[in-house]
Specification:
single chain; 452 residues; alpha/beta; Peroxisomal Thiolase, Chain A, domain 1; 16 helices
Length: 452
């Protein structure tokens, strides 16, 4: 890859390359149901999840991001001096001052490149989108120096033992962003919704686990989706001079996925919003009984939810299904979750089919912050798909027992915030080419090695 002349205003800015890291070990959700003593289907049908990735104390947010970025650079033969911005979105905090991005600079400084803008962005699962937005805005601004940007979105999604633990997971997506991209951000089609809410937060600095109000968080997610979707559609109507735009104008949908069932419900809500704008359209006849329902009631009405799910079942399979594959196999990844959906879509749908298609992307982070944008696929995605090699890599993982998952969580609990230590996790659980923690010294400085 070569750096473009920065005197020209960049066109077709978007994603040029993608890499994804996920742990070597995973556990089947069917086995977790048995282990936790819950009814069969509670996690697999109720949450829509299939497998869950996990780590022990050998990996942290810096090691997994090091792995993702290094693999991106190597697989796509990117010159380290061609990177001018590096943005990290994460809520997995191991230091209250020093950013993860500074650790990633070790990959670039050894190649003589220390002029790279960007630091970490944090707000729950939204940080990855904010980092991506910063990178896009940089490239389209007077600050751009002609080089590429890398966006890293990643987290360790960890929960205390209990109802929320089955929504754990871990993963990182690293993206090369620049001009003349195959996956292009559509200018002007963007919507945001932000407000103050205590739906999910991490106030206890002595624990990796969050405080979660699950039901309220789901409502916040849906409400923010509705707001972003309606604002997006208003801008689409203006841009394309359409009186009543709808989900019919969208080819694929990628949503932040804390668990698959919530994505299913949010996609169904799109049809409710379309119905409210076009109540006399025959295709929404099944929703007529809910025409006079208040908005507040619509958020929690189970009859409406069932009607929407039935109405959108085939649309979900076609427009959302391909993007749901990786998140179902890995679990929640916080900032990486929505980008894992994009990785999954590019991996599951062939390049020819994707050409000129519009991809809507919805990012949500508790607290709360949400945005919706769309992409157009303008050239081949075959190289990205081939180098991701997603299905094969997921199938090659080690399938562990729930007892091993529980033991790994216990190890992390016992070593959280510890210093002057060598992690006890078995290096056999680390895949080749993966960075891991070699030691943490008595000043909490972390040292990493890459497994040969």
């Amino acid at each position: 890859m070569t750096v473009s002349n920065y005197n020209n205003y960049p066109e077709n800015v978007g994603v040029l390359a993608m890499e994804m890291y996920f742990p070597k070990r995973c556990v089947n959700q069917t086995e977790m149901e048995t282990f936790d003593g819950v009814s069969a289907g509670k996690y697999t049908i109720g949450l829509g999840q299939e497998k869950m990735a996990f780590i022990d104390d050998r990996e942290d947010i810096q090691s997994v991001c090091l792995t993702a970025v290094q693999n991106l650079m190597e697989k796509h033969n990117i010159s380290y001096t061609d990177i001018g911005r590096l943005e990290v979105g994460t809520e997995t905090i191991i230091d209250k001052s020093k950013s993860v991005k500074t650790c990633l600079m070790t990959l670039f400084s050894e190649h003589g490149n220390t002029e790279i803008e960007g630091i970490d962005t944090t707000n729950a699962c939204y940080g990855g989108f904010a980092a991506f937005s910063n990178a896009i805005n940089w490239i389209e601004s007077s600050s751009w120096d002609g080089r590429f940007a890398i966006v890293v979105a990643g987290d360790l999604a960890l929960y205390a033992s209990g109802a929320a633990r089955p929504t754990s997971g871990a993963g990182v997506v690293a993206m090369l962003v620049g001009k003349d991209a195959p996956i292009v951000v559509e200018r002007g089609l963007r919507a945001t919704h932000m407000e103050h809410a205590y739906d999910f937060y991490k106030p206890d600095m002595h624990s990796e686990y969050p405080v979660v109000d699950g039901k309220f968080s789901n409502t916040c997610y849906i409400r923010a989706f509705d707001s972003c979707y309606n604002r997006y559609m208003a801008r689409l109507a203006k841009a394309e001079e359409k009186e009543k735009p709808s989900m019919d104008d969208i080819d694929y949908v990628v949503c932040h996925s804390p668990y698959a069932k919530l994505v299913n419900k949010s996609f169904a809500r799109a049809s409710y919003n379309d119905f409210i704008r076009d109540k006399d359209n025959e295709k929404y006849a099944a929703l007529k009984p809910f025409e006079e329902m208040s908005y507040a009631d619509s958020l929690e009405n189970k009859d409406l939810e069932r009607a929407l799910m039935g109405l959108t079942k085939s649309g979900y399979a076609q427009k959302v299904g391909p993007a749901a594959y990786a998140p179902k196999q890995i679990g929640n990844m916080y900032t990486a979750a929505v980008w894992a959906g994009l990785v999954s879509l590019i991996s599951e749908v062939d390049s020819e089919t994707l050409q000129n298609k519009r991809i809507m992307l919805y990012s949500y982070g508790s607290g709360l912050a949400a945005s919706m944008i769309s992409f157009r696929v303008r050239s081949s995605t075959e190289e990205i798909k081939s180098k991701l090699n997603l299905r094969q890599r997921l199938e090659e993982r080690t399938h562990s027992k729930p007892e091993e998952f529980a033991a790994a969580m216990k190890i992390r609990e016992n070593t959280h915030n510890a210093c002057d230590m060598i992690p006890t996790g078995d290096l056999e659980n680390i895949a080749t080419g993966t960075y891991y923690i070699e030691k943490i010294d008595d000043k909490w400085r972390r040292f990493y090695k890459r497994k040969d």
